[in-house]
Amino acid sequence: MVLPLDAMGGAYADLEIHEDGSGHVDNAERAKQNVDLEDSREALIRAGRIGGYAQAFRPPGGGKPLMEVSTTVELLRDEDAATAYLEDQFADFERMRGRRSKGVRLSRAKRFPVAGIGDEAGGVEVTVAFRKRRGYSTIVAFRRGRVVAAADLTRADRRDMRDEVQRLARVLENRVSGVLRGEELREPEPVSRSFGPDLESLTFAAKDFRGASLAHEGYMSFGDVRAFLREFDVAGRLGGSQIFYLRAMTQAFPDRRSAKADQRFVGTEKGSRSVARGFVKQLFQKESFKPVVSEAHPLRWGDRDTVGIQFFFEAPNGRMEGVLLSVQRGSLRGTVTMIGRAKDVEPNDVLTVRKKLRARLASA
Predict the structure, then answer these.
(1) How far is the C-alpha of 219 from the C-alpha of 164, rounded, in Å?
(2) At 272, which helix (H) or strand (E)?
(3) CA-CA distance, 344 to 58, in Å (whole number)?
(4) What is d(CA 85, CA 116) in angstroms, rounded to the nearest whole number?
(5) Using one digit for the tens of pLDDT, what is the confidence trace for 327-357?
(6) Which residues, 6 or more positions from 105, have their beta carbon under 8 angstroms from its beta carbon?
(7) What are the DSSP calls for 62-123, one per residue?
(8) Which one, of 152, 109, 153, lies nearest residue 128 by Cα?
(9) Which of 300, 116, 33 minimizes the C-alpha distance to 310?
(10) If residue 42 lies in a helix (H) or strand (E), which one and from where to where?
(11) Beta pairing, strands 306-315 & 241-252
(12) Which of 41, 118, 317, 342 could bridge 28 with an S-S bond, Cβ 3.0-4.6 Å?
């Protein structure tokens, strides 16, 4: 959702992507970037931040007076969390005014009102001093639903850039709103370095399954583990199984060891019950009916990277069967879960997507 260079306007046509300031930004990386260095990864998780993406551009050779222009987009747990997060970001600038960190001193922070952008918005002008130089940044940040986004322009002079940064923020808001409406937009500028794998591109889409239509997608966070999932309504089959629901999810663990340990747990009797119960609880969390998993046990298909779970629960329209396929590669894990009537599901049919799932994980 960040702005590609050609969406910013002709004044920026000669800029080049700044790779160190571009890419996926998980909570650990965001904590390092925060103005208030007391904000930790754990604090961001508690605040409901799920993940984000940043993209920055600079003049070739470090030209002046323009130093950098960037946009960021961050996803929060819900709208209330996004509102609190937005205000906290502005408050951090005021709170840290006059303080020095890592050789950089925040000497000035002045907020200004912004109207007509997103559900709520604000701006701040910031002056930083470093290595006998000064940078003057103008930032406009806004909330649209549970997304917090910002446009940031830094110059070597004091030129008033409020109007220009608000223009960039409006362009960014249009892009964010388009994504929230379901429009497909061009990918961000390619970077050779990013803060973690692109989980969206690694996760199966509706086109990968016959008769599937997207019902929901989004990022999730489980402590140190980032995840992206897509849920589908299905009017068709996976292999020979007649199913009506399917979920694909990709998880990024901090390292290979923790991914392997979690995969091993899924393949145990205790793990299969825990995962199945958690899955069903999440699936029906907005429904008045709360089914209970009556049976769950691990499936083993003889390959070291693969485990599975077969589980059953009673629904108002009969006994349902779910089958989960889990494939681990390095610090990544991909899962596919299918649900249908118990009499219509054959567990081994989920293996029809294993080869493709392995290839997705290997492409990261």
Answers:
(1) 31
(2) helix 269-283
(3) 57
(4) 19
(5) 999 999 999 999 999 999 999 999 999 999 9
(6) 98, 99, 128, 129, 130
(7) S-SSEEEEEEEEEEESSHHHHHHHHHHHHHHHHHTTT-EETTEEEEEEEEEE--SSSSEEEE
(8) 109
(9) 300
(10) helix 41-46
(11) unpaired
(12) 41
Residue with tokens 């323009």: 66
Query: What is the Cα–Cα distance from 317 to 70, expressed in whole angstroms?
Result: 52
Q: What is the rounded distance in angstroms from the CA atom of residue 188 to the CA atom of residue 52?
A: 13
Domains of the chain, start order = 5-180 (3.40.1000), 199-362 (3.40.1000.70)
Going by DSSP bridges, is the β-strand pair 241-252/16-17 parallel, antiparallel, or unpaired?
unpaired
Cα atoms found within 13 Å of the Cα of residue 155, Cβ hemisphere only: 13
Q: Closest Cα partner for 143 from 209, 190, 76?
A: 76
Q: Does position 195 have pLDDT exceeding 60, yes or no? A: no
φ/ψ (deg, to 5) at 7: -85, -10
The answer, yes or no, to whether residue 193 has pLDDT greater than 50, is no
Burial of 340 (0-12, 13-18, 19+ CB in 10 A): buried
Q: Tell me the C-alpha distance between 51 and 11, whole Å.
A: 30
Instruction: With CA atoms as reference, report the closest residue to 104 among 170, 162, 154, 41.
Output: 154
Global pTM value: 0.54
